[in-house]
Design a protein that fits this description.
The N terminus and C terminus are likely disordered. The chain has a single domain, classed as Purple Acid Phosphatase, chain A, domain 2 (4-Layer Sandwich). The chain has about 325 residues and is of the alpha/beta class. The strands form three sheets. The protein has a seven-stranded mixed beta sheet with strand order 7-6-3-2-1-14-15. The chain has a six-stranded mixed beta sheet with strand order 8-9-10-11-13-12, with no helix packed on it. A two-stranded antiparallel ribbon has the order 4-5. The chain is built from nine helices and 15 strands. One fe (ii) ion binds next to α3. The site of one fe (ii) ion has 7 residues, from loops.
Length: about 325
Amino acid sequence: MDRRQFMTRTLRCASATAIAGVVPVSLIRVAFAQSQQDFSFACISDAHLQQVRGRQFVARQDRSLMRAVAEINRMQPRPDFVVFGGDLAQLGSSAELDHGADLLSRLHRPVHMVMGEHDYYLDLGEHWRGLFGAPNYSFDHKGVHFIVLNSILTCEAWTLRRWESAERRMAEMTGLDSPRMSPFMVGTAQRQWLQQDLDNTDITTPIVVLSHSPLQKIRKDWNFWTDDADMLQAMLAPFEQVNVLYGHVHQRLHHRIGNIRFDSVEATAWPWPSPQSDRQAGSHLPMLTLSDQAKPNRSATAHWQLVNLHNGRVDVTDAPDVQV
Ligand SMILES: [Fe+2]
Ligand SMILES: [Fe+2]
């Protein structure tokens, strides 16, 4: 795909919200100058499947992911593939991850997986890697270069030496605003891998980066944050067009920094509050410890978000051409 064929420079995100706004599924449409080359892929994220005991799991999270899978299987136009944006499990156990892999296996399209911190901090990703493979990889699809990063790593001292047990380490990562968390980062080894990958990519090739945490610094005390985001942005700066899609924040956020668009994917599990509204009302912060404090911020109708990279605008319209 040469550069002229990508002249429209748009990436359209459709948050197709089905059945009275219960299930957030994003359909990303990549638009080319010649529309017959357009393609789409679906994104879902943050299922947080939680084991109660044995084969019993929290029903609400199960139902939400199962419904998202069913909606994607019914989508027209049919997405080429599906991205799962991380946090498949709540406490990272083998049972939760196996259960999640089983539910995702019902998708009729290929799935590309992203690692979330809830998938990682019990066994440091061992069971997840056994199910889904390496957490950082790249692939090409119809002229677009996709890069998947594991953005939820943190410093070795926190990961390996601070906690008396793996269960305690995992528990410390489950809150929204714990002062004992450590900032996420992609890390040196993965940045070196990314540089090699980018060295083999032409600067005119459109790039889509998939990560769990935002590759930008939104709010550190909630870990809506990746500590080496500045370095990653600098590595991506030479490229003509870069879009980052991420999960983790459990709400829709849209930003642009230079040549890079950042668009989040909502959670199937539950919405987190807006960091902007809570920054303005700082006295709310000490109360924010668990999901029962979350304020729903989902819209009730299906709609498109058209991200226009010419003018940086995000236009939201009804989505009559998406059947969910
Ligand atoms: Fe999450
Ligand atoms: Fe997360």
